[in-house]
Amino acid sequence: MTDAAIRSFVYLLDPLCGWCYGAAPAVRWLREQPGVTLQARPVGLFAWDQARALDGMRDHIHAADARIAALTGQVFSAAYADRVIGDAAARLDSGPATSALFAAERQRAGGALDLLAAIQAARWVEGRDVADRAVLSALAADLGLVLPDDEVVDDAALRQWVDEAAMLLTRSGAGGVPTLLRQQDGRLQVVPSAYLYQSRARLANLLAA
After folding, report:
1. This prediction's pTM
2. What is the spatial distance between Cα 130 and Cα 202, in angstroms, rounded to a whole number?
3. In the chain, what are the domains?
4. In Å, how far from its chain's centre is CA 176?
5. pLDDT digits 0-9 by tens, 139-175
6. Is 12 helix (H, G, I), strand (E, B) or coil?
7. What is the C-alpha to C-alpha distance for residues 13 and 201, in angstroms, rounded to an integer?
């Protein structure tokens, strides 16, 4: 097996998934390792017809946020609790952010991962509405990216990009996102989710295997 075969990964996610935010430090570390290629692929968990109101979900979200923070050290700010989760009209709608990730990746390889990190910081640290196109455009601009107008987005290509990722998730047998897939022996194999939240030593051992 070549080094390239074990250093190629696909990261399945949703930009509004709290556990994906919890995995961000591990994803960042993995991306920084020599010879690693990592693709970010949103699966549409909360996108479009899967968007939903937060009514009835707030207690669950707060409990999950507390678990993620304790496990990973990730920041869930008061601004996020007040402005995002505390907004009576708030919805989980990752459609705009998913479209932005697609546009970012089309502009440059790795652009989706760059923008994902900015989106996560904007939501969970700064308490910004990352379903707002103006917010997403500003985040992209800070990275040297330009989001296209909605009317010029290739919707068919966007939906295919997301549908392919959703099919990868289904075929992998993983229970949900985040899911990290490693290319091995011509196949994509699931990396245990614990590797994304515990010591970097497990990921380092995976790369050295």
Report:
1. 0.95
2. 32
3. 3-208 (3.40.30.10)
4. 12
5. 999 999 999 987 678 999 999 999 999 999 999 999 9
6. strand
7. 22
